[in-house]
Design brief:
By secondary structure, this protein is α/β, with parallel strands linked by helices. The chain is built from 16 helices and 17 strands. The strands form 5 sheets. A 5-stranded parallel sheet has the order 2-1-3-4-5, with helices on both faces. It has a 4-stranded parallel sheet with strand order 7-6-11-12, with helices on both faces.
Length: 523
């Protein structure tokens, strides 16, 4: 009797287990938001907390092996919310990606792996970069689609943040896309393009649901998203829908062959600056002074990648905290010694024990020709005068964030500074002038880079779909990657085999009291 009851209980438990397992398996995968990397002050870091987080990371690995996924996720999330260091944050991201991968949640795995990869130093962490890249490749591999995809050639999906924090930017971009569609349809009445517009609400889960609805509508391709890109990209690739992302988020095109990007990336900006200094001055030695937060770390990693492709060297890399106002310690790390101005009118090295004297001219000795600072114009206004104070007189290089009138209060300290941007509103190009006047008339707003690139993206997509060579979604990506689109508002654009944009950028320089264009992408 006891054995009978035991068997009945066992069978009942097994039934409950499979019922619960099956119901869980049928649930739609929830897209998880990643807590952003908080500002970490290394001077205030508690070694005990670091040791505890080290132990927690080891525990997560053990829990993963035991398939205790929920507990592992809780421990990993706790580290992400209050990491002891950037390294702890990166490791937690990767382990959480491993947990999702083990649970079969490939979209979330890609989401976390991609974020971890964005923070890794590509030079000093080559093996980890390769390992993460391999994991991303595994989770983004797609089963071969057996049936031929049916699509409506004239219907284009648009995926933008139309509510939530980024709603203003989303609506401005939508206005630019609609302007392009109206102009194209008026000029060429053969197809008559239509937009299916959906809101991401800056939520990855909402973006994924929208991509699935696009598939039901049989759209030819998707323009966007801008913010929540990784989860939407992997879903779009899985469904075989071409997607043109407008975001500089690293590695998003790794989601698969149907994913392309049309946006100015860190690598494009750095390549523009380095090639200018090499070609014009023969400068080959570079240093990077960057903020210890996501923007700075992404640009630092990109700089390491790009400089290795040239006959150039990276002489120094120094980070600072975003909250800093005094950069003396960081600047001193860039200095290898001091030089004095001698009687012959030349700078000569000072002896180690030599003391500076009054009424003598000195300068810092450095082993680089160009200093790259990937930060805002406001931060550069604080850093540049301190460089001069410490005797560093060097060519400065920045990002598109420097292309602002906010840089000019420090004009005496940033003379000849060079930085790229993707759009030049004062261009003499008739296309640019017409775009600006049309956008201004339609919206009462002056268009900036994001609106210009959205307009270009829509035009590129419609030109592609209008080709008689394009008869399937696969043909869309093939055509995009086989042609150069030169009739653009920004710069001539093509796409490499990975879906990344290949395009020159406008180059600007501080000259006197102004920021002037010194090299156009049309030159």
């Amino acid at each position: 009797m006891k054995r009978y009851l035991t068997n009945k209980i066992f069978i009942a438990l097994i039934s409950i287990y499979f019922t619960v397992f099956y119901s869980c398996a049928q649930k739609k995968q929830e897209i998880i938001n990643i807590p952003p990397l908080p500002i970490i002050d290394s001077d205030l870091t508690d070694s005990q907390i670091c040791n505890e987080q080290n132990q927690r990371l080891i525990e997560i690995e053990k829990l993963l092996l035991k398939k205790k996924f929920t507990i592992a996720l809780d421990k990993g999330t706790a580290i992400l919310e209050n990491p002891c260091s950037v390294e702890h944050y990166i490791k937690a991201l990767e382990l959480i990606g491993d947990v999702f991968n083990a649970r079969g949640e490939k979209t979330n795995a890609f989401h976390f792996y991609g974020e971890a990869l964005a923070y890794l130093d590509r030079e000093t962490s080559k093996s980890r970069v390769q390992a993460l890249t391999k994991k991303i490749t595994e989770v983004t591999s797609v089963k071969k689609i057996k049936k031929k995809s049916v699509f409506k050639k004239n219907k284009i999906g648009v995926l933008l943040p139309l509510t939530g924090y980024y709603h203003l930017a989303g609506h401005r971009v939508l206005d630019a896309i609609q302007l392009a569609v109206n102009k194209f349809n008026d000029a060429q009445k053969t197809i008559g393009f239509q937009l299916s517009v959906k809101d991401t609400a800056s939520d990855p889960a909402v973006a994924v649901k929208a991509v699935k609805r696009f598939e039901k509508e049989k759209v030819s391709c998707i323009i966007g998203p801008m913010i929540t890109v990784r989860s939407a990209a992997i879903e779009s690739n899985n469904l075989g829908i071409p997607m043109m992302i407008m975001s500089q988020k690293p590695d998003v095109t790794r989601a698969g062959r149907f994913i392309l990007r049309n946006y100015m990336t860190p690598a494009m900006q750095i390549r523009t600056g380095i090639s200018y200094f090499l070609d014009k001055y023969g400068f080959t030695r570079f240093a990077v002074l960057y903020p210890n937060e996501k923007y700075g770390m992404v640009f630092k990693a990109a700089f390491i990648d790009v400089v290795s492709q040239y006959d150039a060297e990276l002489a120094a890399m120094v980070s600072y905290e975003p909250s800093q106002t005094d950069f003396s310690d960081q600047i001193k790390k860039l200095i290898t010694g001091y030089q004095k101005f001698d009687e012959n009118g030349e700078y000569v090295d000072m002896e180690e024990d030599e003391v500076k004297k009054r009424n003598k001219i000195y300068r810092a000795k450095i082993d680089f020709d160009v200093l790259f600072i990937p930060d805002t114009a406001g931060m550069v206004n604080m850093i540049a005068p301190q460089l001069k104070y410490h005797g560093i007189d060097v060519q400065l290089m920045g990002t598109n964030l420097w292309n602002s009138q906010k840089l000019l209060p420090a004009k005496d300290y940033v003379q000849a500074a060079v930085f790229p941007d993707g759009f030049y509103p004062e261009s003499k190009s008739k296309r640019v002038k017409n775009f600006i006047s049309s956008y201004l008339k339609a919206t009462d707003n002056f268009p900036e880079y994001t609106e210009a690139i959205a307009y270009d993206t829509a035009m590129i997509i419609m030109n592609t779909l209008s080709s008689p060579m394009v008869n399937s979604r696969k043909d869309v990506t093939k055509y995009l990657q086989s042609n150069t689109f030169s009739r653009t508002i920004t710069c001539p654009t093509s796409f490499d085999p990975q879906g990344e944009p290949v395009k020159p950028l406008e180059l600007f320089q501080v000259i006197g009291d102004e920021i002037k264009l010194i090299r156009s992408c049309d030159d």
